[in-house]
Amino acid sequence: MGNMVKLIVDGTELEVEEGTVLLDACLDHGIYIPHLCHLKGMEQPPASCRLCFVSIEGIAHPVPSCTLTVREGMVVQTDTNAVRGLQISALRLLLSVHDVDCAHCPANKKCALQKIAKFLHIGLKAKGLEIYLKEPRVVQDHPLIDYYPNRCVLCGRCIRVCRAQNGLPLMSFAKRGFDTVISFYGAASTLGCKTCFACLKICPVGAITLKTPNS
Amino acid sequence: MISEPYDQEAGQAFRSILREAMRRRSAFKEAVLPKIHIGMSTCGIASGALETKNAFETALNECGLSALIHSIGCIGHCYAEPVVIVERPGFPPILYYKVTPGKARMIVKSYLAEGDPLFEHLLGAMEENDLIPSVMDFPRFSRETRVITEKCGRIDPEDIYEYLAEGGYAALAGVLGRNPDHIIREITESGLRGRGGAGFPTGQKWMLARNADAGQKAIICNADEGDPGAYMDRTILESNPYQILEGMAICAYAVGARKGTIYIRAEYPLAVKILRCAVEQARVLGFLGKSILGTSFGLEIDLFEGSGAFVCGEETALIQSIQGDRGMPRHRPPYPAQKGLWNQPTVINNVKTFALVPTILAQGAAWFKSIGTETSPGTAIFSVVGSVVHPGLVEIPTGVTLKALILDICGGIPNKKRFKAVQIGGPSGGCLPEELLATPIDFDSLTEAGAMMGSGGMVVMDEDTCMVDVARYFLDFTQKESCGKCTFCRIGTFHLLRILERITRGEGREGDLEQLEELSIQIKEGSLCGFGKTAPNPVLTSLRYFRKEYEAHIREKRCPSGMCRALTAYYIDLEKCARGCDACVGSCPVEAIFTTEDRKKAVDQSLCVKCGECMVSCPVEYSAVKKVSPPHLAPVILRPVEKEAKKNA
């Protein structure tokens, strides 16, 4: 084991290995911080979901905890007003482009969005924001997998596990702005797909599903 | 200040190249033939410089005259393109503006053949003399301080010897062999701040990279210019690429890099071509390559053509793009100077920053610091476009006020219109109103006012501009160019755009403005990169300075400048309309104009698409077409048949 460092999170002292990502350290010690895009052991955090903010003593603005490694004497707060404010607005933005139809979603009850909404004490509604959904509702160009753009939170975890498993970019982000989606590059490149279904298993929200006989 | 070569061998090699450059220059200068310098940058070519050049050649042939035709870069006076400077023995060099092929023929026939300098077509003489007024009589020329663009428009961008003859590469020859720390100290002392927009101290950035412990280091020149209406970098690349290469070589020497990359937009084909030519020439003469001027220091420079994503101008996205990944920014720190391209410590500087380096070293930090303001020393280049009389590139010392730049130097607003706002810093910048025209142009004052220096785009808007529509335009740009990575930028700016679109359509609601503000602040705080953090600036500044305009759209369904189509209507004033005239009928693309019972014209509002063509075509003596907002102010005039039908019913 490497050197241990001590830090204080929400008033509790934690002792963790030097070099640990702050978010991992908190999660390992039972301190929940909402997050979507984080995967343990990544070289560079994408820091794209903008949920895992924490306040650090000495830093004016909240910082995503996936981008920090633990430091001796670090004082962290996970539930300040500023932090919760950012988390709630990020979640509401995600919900404003999300097809909230949990009853028909395979991720129902194990969905990360449901968990985070419950944790933040907000409903699955994008309060004050209009709802915008993308067309088409389902992309079916992969022979085995269906993709639901309006469930997807674009955390990019599927892309990363796919690369880790296959060493090849079989899937990627495509398009820009609001239209950004996950793409399998049409049917042609799915030839390389080894049907490991890593992407399906890692998806936090049920945006990637197995093709059903009637779909 | 670095004036003399330090390394003996490099000094010798440099002096021998310089002798050749001076020999070539005196051969050109001393030739008794007239010389015709034509600006051949993209801007010149777009205004017809190629045709002008052909016309000169043909006319010279026809008159049996010979002259030296010399292609030069751009001098930044876009309103005057194609720009031609003619030197005729016995006369001062004269600058002619808007030289069409016809004017070119006249210049050859009247001036070169007969000695009449055509006073009506010249802008002025390039030097003081008794015969022709000098261009220095115009503030557009005399109030500029050219440091970055000093050689732009004076040299042929495809001839390295011309750059050398103007003092080029002396700074590089001077630094070789010196202690890199001294070079960085000189840059730090000059107070140079990065000209890419954020204004980070260049010396500090270089020091970070120099001190980073790594086997290999990299430098990148960021030439991914993409702000709407901004083209400073393109002009410099096309007019004087050598100065950038020299600045990069000095930087590489100072930080210990052996590899440089220029990230340039593929949409700048001429700049790419000229840059490739410059790299090749520099390599042949020993200013690039394994052993620069015979020393042990070597630098290779590659070009990387970006494929047009605006966000790739953000340094971390730019690095991703070079590495073959989708151009998406990543979290900082680590900063590129610590861990950048291929995880090497990387210095990324803007074109203008690199272009400033040779001059700072040649003239000294104290000299540079004496120009402009205390906290943002030096000069700034702006491409001033939009509603100004003399648009183009202007290089001014920092601290000059917006008022002086727009109203004095660039000639103010044309067509007797009133100034309304100036948008500075592109999609990340803000719109500043007339009350803030006294703001001095420097990094800190502009940021305080809610805009930013940006890389130098400046769009001037007159009274006919709707500020809500301007905000909508910039958010549309931002949303289209957002990489889609982080939640706030991807979804937040989309909501901003949709709300703005609604307001411009006349569907604004109470509470919209508060929501715009709230969302903007969330996006600024929550976004991952600089692109998202600054994206709401156009909304926030227009709300701050033009809130009444938003309120008019929402509460009265009125667009004060009459630009939002859904909130305007055209009608024909029957008092003014002339019987029998049908100019408007012909110009209407949708046949919305009909003849009334007394043979005057009226607009069918249900068909009108509000293009305004009728207003343009209505003869000035009548000026019968009126535009109103809100649209219900337009009197309803029924078609004669409809009237009949109504009566019968």
What does this structure look like?
The complex is a heterodimer of chains A (215) and B (649). Chain A has 2 domains: 4-90, Ubiquitin-like (UB roll), CATH 3.10.20; 134-215, Alpha-Beta Plaits, CATH 3.30.70. Helix content of chain A is 21%, strand content 15%. Chain A has 5 helices and 9 strands; from the N terminus they run E-E-H-E-E-E-H-H-E-H-E-E-H-E. The termini of chain A are far apart. Chain B folds into 5 domains: 32-137, 3-Layer(aba) Sandwich (Glutaredoxin), CATH 3.40.30.10; 160-369, Rossmann fold, CATH 3.40.50.11540; 379-463, Ubiquitin-like (UB roll); 468-525 and 536-556, de novo design (two linked rop proteins); 568-648, 2-Layer Sandwich (Alpha-Beta Plaits), CATH 3.30.70. Chain B has 26 helices and 18 strands. Chain B is globular and about 105 Å long. The N and C termini of chain B lie far apart (92 Å). Classes of the chains: A alpha+beta (215), B alpha/beta (649).
